[in-house]
Write a structure and sequence with these properties.
Layout: H1 2-12, E1 17-25, E2 28-36, E3 41-48, H2 56-66, E4 72-76, H3 81-89, E5 93-96, E6 101-105, E7 108-112, H4 119-123, H5 135-146, H6 155-162, H7 166-178, E8 182-187, E9 190-193, H8 196-215, E10 216-221, E11 239-241, H9 242-250, E12 258-261, H10 267-274, E13 277-278, E14 288-292, H11 311-321, H12 324-337
Parallel strand pairs: 3-4, 4-5, 12-14
Antiparallel strand pairs: 1-2, 2-3, 5-6, 6-7, 8-9, 10-13, 10-14, 11-12
Helix pairs in contact: 2-11, 5-6, 5-8, 6-7, 8-11, 9-11, 9-12, 11-12
Length: about 350
């Protein structure tokens, strides 16, 4: 934090004062608050390490929740030019340790990009603290978020639901306890969630890099925006995620891009029926279609949810995009289905 504050002073001559660290605001824990004397304003600060590898959509969504418009700031080790432009477009202010910054607090306006990071920032491997947010742990955490009673089930049942090896369950639970996501000992032989919202946020933020990327089959496109409406998902054992699932859950969004959760064995037949084609590198795709292999134990669904992924997966797909309308729809899903 101090290094980023020093860097913006070096680059732009701007002084920032730290008002507080690890500040409590309602039921949220804020990393810090800072003051800009020249603008006589105070900002809420979110600190991120290994920022080039973070889920930017999740960060934008969190910043929109922890601070009023224009009253938040992302502080990171390094913000690359593409990230900087996306954050500026989303009206998210930021500073980093390389001296890149976007601050819009009249009369103060600063936009600096292109400064190179230190070597250790570029070479560093982004990682969540602990094993619960690695590939296997993410599957276990999803199973807990999907069925909250599962945290007190026998390890074998948890392993079956999460589709992981039995031996993995114990170390995931221990890590969740160590990170204060689960509590043990308050009730005899019982576990309970310490902060369910924070656990969900952490899972959603890690999802694109730690789980979804490893399940990705391929990405395609189409010239027909309504291609999906004629698809009988049952023939392919497929489930709609992303914008299509969100449209069905909320009746609020008009889908442009699609995420399809499908087993590889059905892919060729699906592509032929849907008439999808591979995206040509460096060409803009009007409609993006991501094929992802499911990572959960399939259960029977019916009625409104037939053919749709669990609301948490649809929510995570939308958050990843960072698109303002998708974020708005995602938060509708959270309020209606994930409370």
């Amino acid at each position: 934090m101090n290094e980023a504050i020093y860097s913006i002073h070096r680059e732009a001559g701007l002084c920032l004062d730290v008002v507080g660290r690890e500040v409590k605001k309602g039921n949220r824990q804020l990393d810090a608050t800072i003051r800009i004397p020249e603008a006589d304003t105070q900002l809420v600060v979110e600190i991120k390490k290994w920022a080039p590898h973070i889920n930017l959509g999740a960060v934008i969504n969190r910043m929109n929740h922890i601070a009023e418009p224009g009253q938040g700031m992302l502080l990171a080790d390094y913000i690359n030019p593409n990230m900087g432009e996306r954050l500026r477009e989303a009206h998210i202010q930021f500073i980093d340790t390389a001296g890149n910054a976007y601050i819009n607090q009249p009369p103060v306006y600063i936009y600096i990009k292109g400064n190179k990071p230190k070597v250790n920032v570029v070479a560093g491997a982004w990682d969540k603290t602990g094993r619960a947010f690695q590939f296997t742990g993410m599957r276990v955490v999803f199973a807990f978020l999907r069925d909250k009673n599962l945290i007190n089930a026998p390890y074998r049942q948890i392993a079956e639901q999460a589709q992981v090896a039995l031996g993995a369950v114990g170390w995931v639970i221990r890590d969740l306890v160590a990170q204060n996501f689960l509590l043990e000992g308050r009730k005899k032989n019982q576990r309970e969630f310490a902060n369910l919202d924070r656990l969900m946020d952490e899972w959603v933020e890690a999802y694109p890099h730690k789980l979804k990327a490893k399940q990705r089959i391929a990405t395609f496109t189409t010239g027909d925006p309504g291609w999906w409406k004629a698809i009988d998902f049952k023939k392919f054992g497929a489930l709609w995620g992303g914008e299509i699932a969100a449209a069905r859950y909320t009746r609020y969004l008009h889908p442009k891009d699609a995420v399809v959760y499908i087993n590889k064995e059905y892919m060729a037949k699906f592509l032929k029926t849907a008439r999808l084609r591979k995206i040509v590198q460096d060409k803009h795709a009007a409609h993006r279609v991501d094929l992802i292999e499911p990572f959960w134990r399939k259960e029977k669904d019916s009625g409104k949810t037939a053919g749709l992924v669990h609301p948490l997966v649809a929510y995570a797909d939308l958050i990843e995009t960072g698109d303002p309308r998708n974020l708005e729809t995602a938060n509708r899903i959270r309020e209606e289905y994930l409370r």
